[in-house]
Amino acid sequence: MEAPAAPHSPVETELTVTSPEQMRDLGRRLAKLLRAGDLVMLNGELGAGKTTLTRGLGEGLGVRGAMTSPTFVIARVHPSLGDGPPLVHADAYRLSGGLDEMEDLDLDVSLTDSVIVVEWGEGKVEGLTEDRLNLVIHRAVGDTTDEVRHVTVTGLGARWSATDLSVLSA
Question: What is the pLDDT of residues 16-59, one digit of tens each?
């Protein structure tokens, strides 16, 4: 009888971002690592840069449509302008049912054929896949003029176990 496979250790990198343009650049670099079926969870305070990072992801993936916060529509689908996967940009802030509510959104794409970016997804959408990227964006609280962000990128599961996330550094 074979022993069960050992769980994959998370891979992690820490980055410092000092401007909105650098946050967009991080999104563009991250897009080069992504493929259909990938889940990216973005967590951080209001104004941390989650939507700005997603704009860079959209540019890097070559998808159509302006990236705006999907808070009031919950999810937007951005079709690819080329042969890449569409980007599903979701905001789980107002979702209480987690995964079931994500499936009930009646998105016109298959989640396994898309790159899925979920803002505020922690504790709500992890069940979509055990292979995911978790980005936590920390900013100085109270000092809204400070543009410095500390970003922790953690790759979880087999999909990310051999990925060198240090390539995300500028």
Answer: 999 999 999 999 999 999 999 999 999 998 889 999 999 999 99
Global pTM reads: 0.83
Dihedral angle over CA of 48, 53, 54, 57, nearest 10: -170
Long-range CB contact pairs, 15-22, < 8 A, 24+? 15/150, 15/151, 15/152, 15/153, 15/168, 15/169, 15/170, 16/148, 16/149, 16/150, 16/151, 17/49, 17/148, 17/149, 17/150, 17/151, 18/147, 18/148, 18/149, 19/147, 20/49, 20/52, 20/147, 22/170
Alpha-helical (H) ranges within 46-108 are 50-61, 99-103
Alpha helices in 20-147 (DSSP H): 20-31, 50-61, 99-103
CA distances from 28 to 52, 95, 132, 150 (A): 11, 27, 18, 17
